[in-house]
Amino acid sequence: MAMIDLYEAISTLRAVRRLRPDPVPDEVLRRVLDAARFAPTGGNRQPLRMIVVRKNAAKQRLADLYAKTWAAYVKFHRNLLEGVPEEIVVKQEKMLAAGDYLAAHFGETPVLVVFCFNPLEMAITDAKLDRPSVVGGASVYPAVENLLLACRAEGLGCVLTTLLCEHEDEVRSLLKIPDPWGTAAVIPIGYPVHRGHGPVSRRPIGKLAFADEWGTAFE
Ligand SMILES: Cc1cc2nc3c(=O)[nH]c(=O)nc-3n(C[C@H](O)[C@H](O)[C@H](O)COP(=O)(O)O)c2cc1C
Hints:
By secondary structure, the chain is of the alpha+beta class. The chain is built from seven helices and four strands.
């Protein structure tokens, strides 16, 4: 079993989009799925399921949908880069190139884990507010993060993707997902083409955490 310091795993878990087609051993996959199951959910209702897609036909159908959606996203995203400072453009183009690779090879990824959720079993405490609700997601995405961290520990590349959620009806019919279940994320998993995980760039804690009230930097 892989051993890695928890803080190191957290701080080097990044989006790995270039994945090799080599299979992931069943026992490794089982550990990664097991990690997901320990995540908290509202009222411990566990309103989530994971579909482990490994059959080529289904992966290819998902890949076709993903490639179409990525193409539209990337066009929109590249337009937004007009007039943006060069160093930001360079970083964004690197991300988009990796995204192009993922879109072109989505169907060759050895494993696609589709996270499903049941909205009727979720404690959605912000459902009635006059803004987009986010609390329901908190009964799914901690499990996604556990799975990503376990992949990190196992030396597997992975990336949280949500573009396929735009095509929930097609994904549900392809994977025989019943009512009222929806889709929250699709995680491509495989051994990385290059070095895989590594340092990530994030805002410093002084910008993200406040002391006692909004606006007073924690550090
Ligand atoms: C809610 C959410 C949705 C995302 N959807 C996609 C996606 O559909 N496709 C993709 O390639 N990356 C997707 N990502 C990955 C992000 O682009 C990535 O986590 C972010 O750019 C940070 O990358 P880094 O960890 O390599 O620094 C998503 C991430 C999150 C949290």
